[in-house]
Amino acid sequence: MPKIVVEVMPKAELLDPQGKAVAGALARLGHEAFASVRVGKRFELEVEGEVTDDVLATVREVADELLSNSVIEDVVAVRVESEPAGVAS
Questions:
Q1: Interior CA angle at 29 toward 23 and 33, to 5°?
Q2: Neighbour-count burial of 12, counting CB atoms closer than 10 A to its CB (0-12 exposed, 13-18 middle, 19+ buried)
Q3: H-type helices in the chain, by residue range?
Q4: Per-residue model confidence as pLDDT tens digits over 5-62
């Protein structure tokens, strides 16, 4: 069954308290190579049948209207994710 992945991130100009907390934890654990962290959301939508342009347009609409808060978040990706080879659905 095809899967569509939607990724949502906080707008770049807004503070990300979760990302800041993760960055602080990484530093405390000795992982100093990371300058910053942003925490977002990932949604996986399984589709009955083929993923057409109409289905993707509907997913983009749903992502803008329901899956993200347009005041503080951006939808950064909508893509079809392939199943790994040899995995049956």
A1: 55
A2: exposed
A3: 17-28, 53-62
A4: 999 999 999 999 999 999 999 999 999 999 999 999 999 999 999 999 999 999 999 9
Cα-Cα-Cα-Cα dihedral of 9, 15, 21, 22, to 10°?
30
Smallest CA-to-CA distance from 7 within 81, 77, 80 is with 77
Residue in the block written with tokens 């079809």:
80
In contact, 83 and 3? CB cutoff 8 Å = yes
The residue written with tokens 């993707």 in the block is 56
The pTM for the full model equals 0.84
Beta-sheet strands, E only, within the chain: 3-10, 41-46, 73-81
